[in-house]
Write a structure and sequence with these properties.
The complex is a heterodimer.
Chain A (H helix, E strand, L loop, with lengths): L2 H51 L6 H28 L12 H17 L4 H25 L4 H20 L4 E2 L3 H8 L1 E2 L2 E2 H19 L1 H11 L1 H6 L4 H26 L2 E2 L7 H10 L11 H20 L5 H24 L3
Antiparallel strand pairs in A: 1-4, 2-3
Chain B lengths: L2 H18 L12 E6 L5 H16 L3 E6 L4 H14 L3 E5 L3 H13 L4 E4 L8 E5 L1 H15 L4 E5 L7 H14 L5 E3 L11 H15 L8 E3 L4 H12 L6 E6 L2 H8 L5 E6 L2 H16 L8 E4 L2 E4 L3 H7 L4
Parallel strand pairs in B: 1-2, 1-3, 3-4, 4-5, 5-11, 6-7, 6-8, 8-9, 9-10
Antiparallel strand pairs in B: 10-12
Classes of the chains: A mainly alpha, B alpha/beta.
Organism (chain B): Acidisoma silvae
Family (chain B): Belongs to the bacterial solute-binding protein 2 family.
Subcellular location (chain B): Cell envelope
Chain lengths: ~350, ~325
């Protein structure tokens, strides 16, 4: 083959290569669309089934209960999704915050102890937010400044938070009663409790922030292609630090809601971590590019909340929920792994 | 004995004669849905009391809506919230932390759903079926004081004081010890944890035996339930400090067996009858739903002090053979 012939055929080769790439991209997009629409259809089908079969499921009060019961998990899952978005989706090397559950427990203890020490609600809230943000900063320091794997760094911080909570509470239940806690559990507006409104407000705010602002889009760029983002002049370290601090602040907000629901601080709050990780993982099937999103996280949390609620209304043993949740996660992880193997979406 | 105590004991006597003796006369629960919410079932006591309730609701023809919170306060609150929306004919709540549950038990009451409790004192409960924890605490403390000859240092686990029945047993210990000035509680008191209670109690007792290394430094370990007792007893055996004896409450089969072993440092356990407690709570509920509103606020189910001397006979009486 002469060099002329190669030169003549090169554009054709490049064209066909570009076509192939386009086809692959289109296929990948098509696949993720099918997964996304299929997941939404499954959610709608499950809720429709419960609506028909489970007595009282579709009542407005019961639906509000589902939202209320999901609020703490949702706020923590939002945190996890933000950290994963900024740190990347790689399970081992990517963004993850395993300290969220323990941070929740520590912040709830901080709020309760501050409240019982006579601090007013605004001061107790400020202390709680400061504790949550401080935990986020420690995570960020370990990950960004020291370069420790997020998985290991946040695992260590989880233990620090757990220990600090034990020091504060002596591993006992501490009850608290304040106007703010009573307001969160007692007040309602348009048939929804304040807890519901906190979730609605946080979801709207975070969807706008993460998916509708320059900061959010750049955050996704940092998580998707860190080198490219750095080359483009983005301050990657600042974005990563921001995700951990935001996660800490959301954990503090979740802690105040939890303190209201439990009338104080109760040991064992860290048990929620597994649900947070699983829910955040699940959220990818509700997004266009199989990446975590705030909307997808919200749907995942409500899906799990609806399942638990529906099972109880149908008088199906609560033990089944764990099994079903596990199957869902296995499905989601398998779908994501297959998609990644067949090409990026 | 306080006035309240006398009243409770009188109530117990009345209930024991009127309820336990006529267990076969329990009205049917046919067509009735009974919500059963329990804090957890990982301990022998919890599981047997839970099974006692579920079995009895089914035996009486009712439909149990049985919910196990897996020792997670948030989950139990969510389950109670959904249960209220389900509007069952009655709800039975078993154990859990009073400060956490209090407002939610009030919501059950406010929703007009008859509330019964197992081992949980609440102003919103129509009836609480439980052991006589005043007697349990007193009996265990007196047995320990007697074994110690009225003198010695004791280690106390006091990490679950927020659970009312535990608080009663601990307060009774303190009351008894007022009259035994030669017995001292080593400070600070220990705090058992949940979960990993056995392993943690083992580690804590190992540490304290190291801190007090001489024979006679510690005479006994007291705990208000028997899961830490397992860990404490194992730690004492491992440290070859058999002069230290352990005392606890609940009477799981493994602990009753341990007490029966003449070589074990486990000296005594007050065994409750959790299955009978659960069953009795449902019987009370059935009677109330059948129109008997004269149900007294407390039903006390007898417990047995198990010692080295009577362990075999007690195990038979408890149906643990």
């Amino acid at each position: 083959m002469s060099s002329n012939l190669i030169a003549e055929q090169a554009p054709a080769f490049l064209d066909s290569s570009a076509d192939l790439e386009d086809r692959e991209t289109r296929r990948a997009r098509h696949r993720s669309q099918i997964i996304r629409l299929g997941s939404i259809a499954a959610l709608v089908a499950v809720f429709a089934y419960f609506g028909v079969a489970a007595p009282g499921f579709a009542n407005l009060g019961n639906l509000a209960n589902i939202v209320e019961q999901s609020t703490v998990l949702a706020l923590l899952a939002f945190s996890m999704s933000i950290v994963v978005l900024g740190g990347g989706g790689d399970v081992i090397r990517g963004g993850i915050d395993l300290s969220l559950g323990a941070n929740l427990g520590l912040c709830a203890a901080a709020f309760t102890v501050a409240s019982n020490a006579g601090f007013s609600d605004p001061v107790a809230v400020a202390i709680t937010l400061a504790v949550g943000a401080a935990v986020g900063l420690v995570n960020a320091f370990a990950v960004v400044a020291l370069g420790v794997l997020p998985l290991l760094a946040t695992l260590a911080v989880m233990n620090i938070c757990g220990g600090a909570e034990l020091v504060l509470t002596q591993n006992t239940v501490i009850s608290a009663n304040s106007p703010l806690l009573s307001y969160i559990t007692g007040a309602s507006w348009l048939g929804l409790s304040m807890t519901d409104w906190i979730l609605v407000g946080a979801a709207i705010l975070l969807i706008a922030l993460v998916h509708g602002t320059r900061w959010g889009l750049r955050l996704q760029a940092v998580g998707g292609q860190r080198q490219a983002a750095r080359a483009a002049g983005l301050r990657v370290s600042a974005y990563l630090t921001g995700t951990y601090v935001a996660a800490g602040l959301l954990a503090a907000l979740a802690a105040i809601v939890q303190a209201a629901r439990l009338s104080g601080s109760s040991p064992g709050s860290g048990d929620i971590l597994l649900s947070v990780v699983l829910t955040s993982l699940m959220s990818v099937v509700f997004s266009r590019r199989l990446l975590p999103s705030i909307g997808g996280t919200l749907l995942s949390v409500l899906f799990i909340g609806g399942l638990i609620n529906g099972f109880q209304l149908l008088n199906v043993s609560s033990y089944w929920v764990n099994g079903v949740q596990g199957v869902l996660i296995l499905f989601v992880v398998a779908v994501r792994s297959l998609s990644l193997r067949r090409g990026s979406v | 004995m306080t006035l309240l105590r006398k009243l409770l004991c009188t109530g117990a006597a009345i209930m024991l004669s009127s309820t336990l003796a006529h267990a076969d006369d329990v009205p049917s629960l046919k067509g009735k849905r009974i919500g059963i919410t329990v804090a957890g079932t990982e301990h022998y006591w919890d599981l047997k009391a839970y099974q006692g309730q579920v079995d009895e609701v089914k035996r009486l023809g009712g439909i149990p809506v049985a919910l196990d919170a897996g020792r997670n306060d948030s989950r139990q609150i969510a389950q109670i919230q959904t249960l209220i929306a389900q509007k069952p004919d009655a709800i039975i709540e078993q154990l859990g932390s009073t400060p956490v549950l209090g407002p939610w038990l009030k919501k059950i009451h406010d929703a007009g759903i008859p509330l019964f409790t197992v081992d949980t004192v609440s102003p919103y409960s129509i009836n609480d079926t439980t052991s006589d924890n005043y007697r349990i605490g007193e009996e265990l403390a007196l047995k320990m004081a007697s074994d110690l000859g009225g003198r010695g240092n004791i280690v106390v686990f006091n990490g679950a004081y927020n659970v009312p029945v535990i608080a009663i047993r601990y307060d009774e210990l303190r009351l008894v010890l007022k009259n035994f000035p030669g017995i001292h509680i080593i400070q600070p008191e220990l705090h058992e944890v949940v979960p990993n209670t056995v392993q943690n109690a083992y580690a804590q007792i190992t540490d304290i035996l190291t801190k007090y290394p001489h024979k006679g430094d510690i005479a006994a370990v007291w705990q208000a339930w028997d899961v830490p007792q397992v860990g404490a007893t194992q730690a004492i055996i491992a440290a070859h400090r058999d002069e230290v004896h352990t005392y606890g409450v609940d009477g799981s089969p493994d602990v009753v067996k341990m007490v029966g072993d003449p070589n074990s440092p486990a000296a005594a356990v007050v065994a409750q009858q959790p299955y009978l407690i659960g069953k009795t709570a449902v019987d009370n509920t059935a009677r109330y739903l059948a129109g008997d509103h004269a149900i007294p606020p407390y039903t006390f189910v007898p417990s047995i002090l198990v010692t080295k001397q009577n362990a075999a006979a007690a195990a038979r009486e408890l149906g643990q053979n």
